[in-house]
Amino acid sequence: MPYCSVCGVEVDAGTERCPLCSVPIFVPGGGEAAAPAGGPAYPEHVSDPVYGSTLTDLERRRVVVEIVSVASVLAAGALALADLLSDGKIAWSLYAFVAIGFTWALVFSVLFLWTKPGWILPALAGCTSLFLLCVDFFNGRMDWFLRLGLPLVAAPVACVMVVGVVIRGIKRRGFNIVAVVLFGVAVFLALVEVILDLNANGVVDVYWSGIAALALAPTGIVLYYIHLRGMRGADLRKVFRL
Amino acid sequence: MSDDRVFDIVPDGVPEMPPWYALDHAAVIYPAIMSERLTVFFRIQARLDRPVDVELLTQATRNVAPRFPYYQVELKRGVFWFYLERNPAPHVPVADSKFPMQKQGAGQQGAHLYRIRAWNDRVAIEVCHILTDGGGGYILFRSILAEYFRLQGEPVPYGEGIFDPNSTPDPAEWEDSFARYSVRGTPWPEPEHRAWHIPGPLLPTGQLRITTGRLSLQPLMAKAKSLGGTVTEYLVAHYMSVLQDIQDADPLEADRFRRRTIKIEVPANMRRLFPSRTMRNFSLFMMPEVDTRLGRWEFDDIVKTVKHQMALDLQKHELLRTITRNVEAARSLWIRALPLPIKNVFMRILFHVFGESLYSGVFSNMGPSQLPDPLASRVKELDMFMMPSHIVKTAAAMVSHGDAVSITFCSHAAPNEVERRFFTRLVKDGLRVKVESNIT
Hints:
- The complex is a heterodimer.
- By secondary structure, chain A is an all-alpha fold.
- Chain A folds into 3 domains: 54 residues, no CATH class; 88 residues; 85 residues, no CATH class.
- Chain A is 63% helix and 0% strand.
- In chain A, helix 1 runs antiparallel to helix 2, helix 2 packs antiparallel against helix 3 and helix 4 packs antiparallel against helix 5.
- Classes of the chains: A mainly alpha, B alpha+beta.
């Protein structure tokens, strides 16, 4: 029987390489290797049975969107009918339509951008901005969306995207990731305070976000420092003279 | 026999076979942890003396199915627990694949939890552990094989783990023996330490390397006996030695005192210790280990420690601890009240912390094939496969048929270091080993 000259194990006739070490098989007598009697041990094709009602991921997502769409249309129709019957016109139900549409858009965005996670956040931000714009528009004054609503949506999105880009660009990942996130949170809190101050008083008076930054920034710096020292193989006992 | 019979999955006279039933206490964790990598399937395959007649195999499968009504089920999702519900769809044998035991289908609507596969002269059964363990799965496989040969005109006798398709299932066959033998108030097992796991990259998802070594039983038994152990103890010791060699060669394990121990999970059939006729899960495991922080272990010493540790682990009183823990934990009101999605998250964490983290490899010995003549003479080779998790990476299973022993490693690891070193060690011990694999 043919055997592997390295491992010492025997193999089926016709086997060209050792299943363990991939070394060409030595055939005693130097003859041509005959094919194994019952054929190879395993088929070459890769197939598995598919039972029952199987749906692909995309089909599942389509079904969910379909169900949410039908439920949204029914809910909007029922609310419109109630509004018409009670007031004789479409009035308060406009807000409900916008809320239903917003929910539908969120579900749709997440499910259809599932394979492109980088686009989910901008899509959610767009949906939220549109929702706030509609709510502001319906009160007839358009007095808070541009000053408050849009900046409060844009600030977290911008912070998350910048943090994401920075993290993506980091080659050696460790505590430095946490540090970058902490810096991002500090910047976000500062932006929120600036937006709120400008709306309330017209001037910027950084107070609570500064306190938060005083806690977050040193922690981030320490983590970044630990990361730099640790990744370079430095002995922390030597560094800290313990 | 007509196909209609499969739809009558509860034959007349079967008392109290419920239309649905709860998973047994060993199986409750499997649906939560089941994934594309850890499919929780095991497989038993037989190579016959001539090519498989698929039509006869289909007929045999359908004839036997009503005798095992508790296996004609599908997995359903409840609010608090998964459960099993009757699935009247007939079984259809399917072609074998290069990578067996894939999850595809299992757990989905209308999917059976076992499948029959055929290729050339080979018949295989792949069974999800949600349904049963190797003991139950092997009885089903033997019964299907016996029916197949009877349809070919062979007078295969019933008994010895071969069920007559026309006999009536005993209610004891679908009992949850864990619940029966747990004793309220029994102390739970002592917590175990995390074990070492072989490092390295994994094969792509959906791929599994199967490496089977075939050797003769008599020289193997003689070799094991010369070292004062059984065949299982001898092979587990070799498995541990291989892992020790890999650990020694790993630069990250250079500091011996920071190493984790090497443990092998060795499943044991509880039906041999507790009087049970259940066809559902009823197996626990022994966990021999070597602590490599103490220094390098010589092979003879590993055989000795494996022998004694396995004997201790197999004590009935010690096993009662694990049985009781499995049952009592599931009976806890807090756990029962958790909705299934939350429970699944907890189950996955529990499996990682108290399951796959605790052992470095798996070695299962199904024992002798116990096939009666003329069935035994028509089966040329018999193999058993076990699916490892991607943390443990490798699992080995052995079965003997006549004088032929088959040891099969299933591995998610990209390098085949464990298998190569294991079989090479056996060769160095003077044993003749023939090896085959689905990936060369």
